[in-house]
Amino acid sequence: MGRLYVIMGKSAVGKDSLYCSLIDRNPTLKTVVPYTTRPIRTGEVEGREYHFVTVSELEAMREQGRIVECRRYDTVHGPWYYFTADDGQLDFSRDEPYVTISTLEGFEKLRAFYGREHVMPVYIEVDDFLRLERAVQREKRQPNPCVAELCRRFAADDEDFSEERLRLAGVEERIQNHEFEKALKEIEELIRRG
Predict the structure, then answer these.
(1) pTM to 2 decimal places
(2) Considering only CA atoms, which of 74, 17, 76, 75 is closest in space to residue 44?
């Protein structure tokens, strides 16, 4: 039975770095690339972290009934959408692990759509001060850094990933990303255990 491992956590906990290293070190691991309407960030690659699409493309997929889950964020730049599409990337009849990145809300919707037996949480944590330092450094590297958006994301994370919401979603195991290699090995072990 195939399983989808959903990497999630607050902004700047290292989800993208862990995801990229995980798939680089485990070439047989299948990826499910989510979609977004936000602009591509420096260092991101189309089709690796996300499929970058327009709102019109999102609406066309919605009309075709292909949207599994979709989240809207009202940013300082306007609304940005993040979503997963039923686009043939997943085949649970094959006994293979898949991996993707999402939010807690996205994880819950994926689990509701595909079933608890197929969708597993991989929750990444890091100290808030370290997370803020990482977020500031990442934002400084962007072509048009925006402190207001960084602050909005940071504040929203406290609500989006509250302990109560994590508990209700059944997220129990946590991976600390203070030591990158150790965190990566823990994710690999979690996937191996199935």
Answers:
(1) 0.86
(2) 17
